[in-house]
Structure formats: C-alpha cells, structure tokens
Write a structure and sequence with these properties.
Layout (H helix, E strand, L loop, with lengths): L6 E2 L3 E6 L5 H9 L16 E7 L2 E7 L7 H9 L3 E7 L6 H13 L3 E6 L8 H9 L13 E4 L8 H15 L2 E2 L6 E10 L3 E10 L2 E2 L3 E4 L2 E9 L5 E2 L1 E2 L4 E7 L8 E5 L2 H28 L1
Parallel strand pairs: 2-4, 2-5, 5-6, 6-7
Antiparallel strand pairs: 1-8, 3-4, 9-10, 9-17, 10-16, 11-15, 12-13, 12-17, 13-14, 13-16
The structure holds guanosine-5'-triphosphate, sodium ion (NA) and magnesium ion (MG).
The site of magnesium ion has 4 residues, from helix 1.
C-alpha cells in the first residue's frame, strides 16, 4: 500500500444502550440540539449520525435506538465504529438491551467507554452500575479493570467534557489513519426514499473524500452525487475522512450497511452495478428453479 497520503482521521463513535437511558439526550447536549424532544413517543427508531467539532477536533457520533425491536440497527451501529459508548442510566442500571449491547461491543473489538448517565438524579447509584458491569467482565479502571466509566448528565452537562476527552484519548491510541486523496469509500448507515428528493443515503466516509459530481456505485445501484447535505441539513460540496452526511443521486435506495465507492467514470459505475444486479438475478433464478424442480 502507498500510505504517503495517510492522515489522522476523526473517530467514529457509536452510542448504544437500553431504551431511554439517555443516548439521544447526551448527543443533544453535546451538539446543543433537541432531537430527543421531537421523537415520536420519545423513542429513537433509526440510526442517525453527526459530526461534531470540539476544540478543533472532530468526532462522528452514531446514535442507535435502545428499544428491544431494533437489535439489527444496534448490530449495524457496532459494525461501523471505532469506539463504543455504552450508556447506562445511573438510576436504572444494567437492563436487557444493556446486556445485548455489551455483546455487540465485545464482538466489535473496539475500545469501550461506559457513560453512566442521569447522575443528576436523586436515585443515581454509580457504584451499583459498576458492580453490575464488573459481574459481566466489564471492570472499571478504578476497580482494577480496563474499562473507563464516566459519570455524566445529559440534563446538566456534568461529565460531558470528560467523556469527550476520553473519546479523543482512545482515538489517539488507535492511531486512526486514512487517505483523503483516495477514491471515496463510505458505509451507508441509513437510507430511504424521500418524496421529491429520491433515494437518500446517509453515509460515513471511511477513506478518501466524497464530492458532488462523483460517480458512485453502491451494491447494485449507482449514480452521480447530485447533492450532499451535512447532518444539519445544510448543503456541502464534500465529505472528508470519517465525516457523515446524506447523499442524493443514486438510482435506487441502497441497503443500510452497503459500501459506496467512487468510480472514475459513470460508465464504470454503471457497469459494476449492472453486473452485480445480473448476478443477483441469476442467483434468484437458480433458487426458484431448484424450488420448482423439487
Ligand atoms: P431510545 O433512543 O429510545 O433508546 O432512548 P435514549 O436512550 O435516546 O433516551 P432519551 O434521550 O430519549 O431520554 C429518555 C428520557 O430520559 C427523556 O425523558 C430524557 O429527558 C431523560 N434523560 C436523559 N438524560 C437524562 C439525564 O441525564 N438526567 C435526567 N434527569 N433525565 C435524563
Ligand atoms: Na428515548
Ligand atoms: Mg434515542
């Protein structure tokens, strides 16, 4: 590999935890936004991602739903990340989806930080959370283990600077590097068909820089990047290393989890996508032929 153009890239940090333990609220506090207040039933139902800048350092966050029904999204969230933050409400402790995200986090092999949230509450009990986690092989640093536990409050903002510092520290240790001059490669974290806009893919750039006008292929779909909006909905011309945004211009809605790659020409992008689509169709056909022969 030619690594002469490699640069340090920002970390991608996935936030996971049991329903209502305060994942979205924590991100709102970090971003000074109000996403949680606008959610139907107060429940997150999709993955969303945000690139924030704190003291000149960028961090891309991935927010995941905590509701039991959204296990696949949690698994997907854990697969795109560099660092996992497990959020546990200090007044509620380890719950079923906390257990689930512990196993996603362990499987990801990423460094894990535990954010013990809602420490502003009367019933908050950080030691209870620590001992519940220690029983699950997630022993806090101050108890002789290797997991950092940080008490935070999405309500008051307590501990959030600590949390951000810790993320940047973990990210430094990881020595995350990529090549901003390479052909863009990105992961689709969410996708949908939007009325009036067509297929929209929310992506995180893994390598290279994605620009308006790039020819892209994404699984069996392709197109030319017509527009990019950042996580605030503002149009931008490009997305750099680890940055997230939404891309318009694909001919079809790609599956979440798909990889998007920039190509030299629209012909190339079309050829790759068409071949893949043919391959898929052939597979389907052979499946149905087998069934009818049985
Ligand atoms: P899902 O995405 O649906 O799993 O929930 P979530 O983990 O994103 O939690 P959310 O941010 O929706 O917060 C759930 C509730 O807890 C809301 O009513 C928040 O206002 C409240 N809450 C979140 N963080 C804190 C906190 O630090 N202190 C207090 N007192 N309340 C909090
Ligand atoms: Na919620
Ligand atoms: Mg949420």
């Amino acid at each position: 590999i030619d690594d002469s153009n490699f640069e340090t890239r920002p970390p991608v940090v996935t936030i996971m935890g049991h329903v209502d333990h305060g994942k979205t609220s924590l991100l709102d506090k970090i971003r000074e936004s109000k996403v949680a207040a606008g959610e139907a039933g107060g429940i997150t139902q999709h993955i969303s991602s945000y690139t924030v800048e704190k003291n000149g350092e960028k961090i891309t966050f991935v927010d995941t739903p905590g509701h039991a029904a959204f296990s696949a999204m949690r698994a997907r969230g854990a697969s795109v990340t560099d660092v996992v933050i497990i959020v546990i409400a200090a007044d509620d402790g380890v719950k079923p989806q906390t257990e689930e995200v512990i196993s996603h986090a362990k499987a990801s092999g990423c460094p894990i930080i535990v954010a013990v949230n809602k420490i502003d509450k009367e019933a908050a009990n950080i030691d209870m959370v620590k001992s519940q986690m220690a029983e699950r092989d997630m022993t806090p640093v101050d108890w002789g283990g290797d997991i950092e536990f940080i008490g935070v409050s999405a309500k008051t903002g307590a501990g959030i600077d600590d949390l951000l510092e810790n993320i940047l520290l973990q990210s430094e240790i990881l020595e995350l590097k990529a090549d901003p001059t390479a052909k863009a490669k990105a992961t689709v974290v969410e996708s949908l068909l939007e009325k009036g806009r067509g297929p929209v893919a929310t992506i995180i750039v893994e390598n290279g820089t994605l620009r308006v006008g790039d020819n892209i292929v994404c699984d069996t779909t392709y197109g030319r990047v017509k527009a990019i909006t950042n996580d605030m909905g503002k149009p931008v011309k490009e997305l750099g290393l680890s940055e997230t945004g939404s891309v318009l211009g694909l001919s079809d809605v790609p599956a979440a989890g798909a990889i998007m790659v920039a190509q030299d020409s629209d012909k190339e992008a079309k050829d790759i996508a068409t071949k893949r689509a043919e391959h898929e169709r052939a597979k389907e056909l052979s499946k149905s032929t087998k069934v009818s022969l049985e």
